[in-house]
Structures are given as structure tokens and as C-alpha cells.
């Protein structure tokens, strides 16, 4: 049990209600909530002085803070975490939101990347935040692979999939490659490639390179290893992070310092340095997860929150994630079911195309 959860269990009904109303008021309008405001909404009739005393106790516990010299309070990061874990009331998905998301996935777009772009735009639109969609790598069964030398330090791997999809990827081969060694490497790979995905082929190659090293010369073995590294995403990024709606974060009445932090966040995302970590966040637990402020290093610079959920393919394997980034005063009760529903939609979309 977290420290925040223990504090919540120890609080009496009055303290719990004051805390909940302060957080809800802050999430609604972004302003500190004062004692006089609460006297009009509390279940029991209590004085402003009594409420101020409760607020002071909650501030001492680290759940509330005073941003200015005014009497109003706002929740701290620990306070927001406690609210999300113990007091958040998640709403039903609204009919308008459901309709907007369903219309996107129901389009006639054949390209998965194009569909995910549209999903990201719809998710950004309905949440008024920035959406992030981690698109899966193309994992259809292979037909064959070819290596083409372009120059002494540049080569092309041509990957032909069983469904007709073709990918051309540039990479730097080990020194000393010749056309014959490349053909030899391709022939070796193609004895195992057909019917396997790239991920499956890489696992097989790891075993076969050791087992059958004597069947190919040292240069060809190096080429195979180099090519596999390219396909596995160590030298490029076959997975794609789609960011939509950044203007929703950059266009509001935000202080210059916060704007710089948010721009830094999007610079990181758009350089795709953190794709693996983004997916790892989603894989750490089932369903929707909420990260507030500095709870994870990926978004700590932005002072923002992330609501994220993984999605699965037809084999129930996590292959990507969808999420919404916004200020820490996100409307969590509304955003959580939207992200959850979007992840389920994307999962069905991926599974349907996988089974065609």
C-alpha cells in the first residue's frame, strides 16, 4: 500500500470531503480553492475557520499546497496521486466521444499507419489534449530477403512479405563485404525466412548462426548479424510514435517556462528517442495507467500527466500503446474511459488486419 493510500485510510469523513472538493475544484478550473467556497458545497454545515484548519492539516501531510499567499489550496503531486488511486470516479464513455472514435476506425483506410494517424487526431480532438499512438512494427510473414550493395559503406536490405508488402532499409554493412558474400548471406537467411516474421527470424538466426557458423564465411556472418540488428530496431526505428494535438498544450494560457518544458517534451517524442520506454510504461500493467508529473522520467520535464493503455494483436500480445498527455489537472474521470476504449478499438483494428 502506498503512503498516499495509507493517508487516505486514516482521514476522517470531513478531511476526506475537504480534500476531494479541493481536488475536484482545481481539476475543473485550475484555480486554488478557498475555505469560503467550500462552506457552500460541504455536506455538513461548517465554518470557514474549521475548513481552514482541515486544509492546514492536509497541507502538513503533503497533500495540498499554497501556490500564492492567498488562502486557497491546490493538490500536490502526491495529493493528485491519492485522489486518482482512491477517490476518482470514472465516468461512462460519452456517446459523442464514442461516435467520434468509432467513425475514425470505421473509415475505409487500408493502411494501418494512416488509420492510426486518424485515431490519434480523433483522440486529441475529443480530449483536447495531445495524443500519442505507438504504432506496431510490420510483422507479417516473410517471403524472401535480398541484400544490395550501394557503396563500400552503404547497403540496402529488401524485405518482401508474403502479403506483397515490400520494405527497403538502408544500413551500414561490416567492412569488406563483396557481392558474393551478400548473396551468400541472403541465401542463408532465405532458408529460414519464409513464413516467419522478422522477430521470429531474428530468434532463429541467433541459434542458427552459432550452430551453422562453418557454413558461411566470417564476412557473411557479420552481414547477417548487422542486418538483424537493423530489423530489430537497434539502428533504426520501425515502430512509429504518432503525436497529434500538440497545439492543445502549446496554445493555452501557459507560462513561458512551462511552454519551454512542453516543447522539450515534444522534441523528445518527435525524435523518437523514448519509444521503447513509452511501450514499457504501458506493458508494466494491464489496462489504463496514469502517470502524474515526475512519476516517470519520460514526462518529468513537462509537468504534465500521461494516461496510457496498451493494445494487443490477435495473439493477445502487446504490440503498441495509446495515450493522452495534458496538464496535471486533466479531467481524469473522463479521459480514462476514452483512452481505454481507444486502446480496445486499435487492438481490434490490428487484429482484424492480422487475420485477413
What's a concise summary of this model?
The protein is an alpha+beta fold. The chain has helices spanning 3-10, 13-29, 35-39, 48-60, 77-86, 95-105, 112-127, 179-193, 198-211, 218-231, 246-250, 256-270, 275-283, 332-354; strands at 64-65, 74-75, 130-135, 142-151, 154-161, 166-171, 240-244, 289-292, 304-312, 318-327.
Sequence-ordered SSE layout with sheet pairings:
Blueprint: H1 3-10, H2 13-29, H3 35-39, H4 48-60, E1 64-65, E2 74-75, H5 77-86, H6 95-105, H7 112-127, E3 130-135, E4 142-151, E5 154-161, E6 166-171, H8 179-193, H9 198-211, H10 218-231, E7 240-244, H11 246-250, H12 256-270, H13 275-283, E8 289-292, E9 304-312, E10 318-327, H14 332-354
Helix pairs in contact: 1-5, 2-4, 6-7, 6-14, 7-14, 8-10, 9-10
Tally the helices: 14
Percent helix range: 40-55%
Described by its quaternary structure, the protein is single chain
Low-pLDDT regions: 228-238
Query: What's the CATH H-level homologous superfamily of the largest domain?
Result: GAF domain
Largest sheet entry: 5 strands, antiparallel
CATH C-level class of the largest domain:
Alpha Beta
- Rg estimate, integer Å: 26 Å
How do the strands line up in the largest sheet?
Answer: 7-3-10-9-8
Portion of residues in beta strands equals 15-25%
CATH structural fold name of the largest domain? Beta-Lactamase
Total of domains: 3
Distance between the termini: 45 Å
GO biological process, one term: negative regulation of DNA-templated transcription
Domain Heat-inducible transcription repressor HrcA C-terminal: 115-336
GO molecular function, one term: DNA binding
Family: Belongs to the HrcA family.
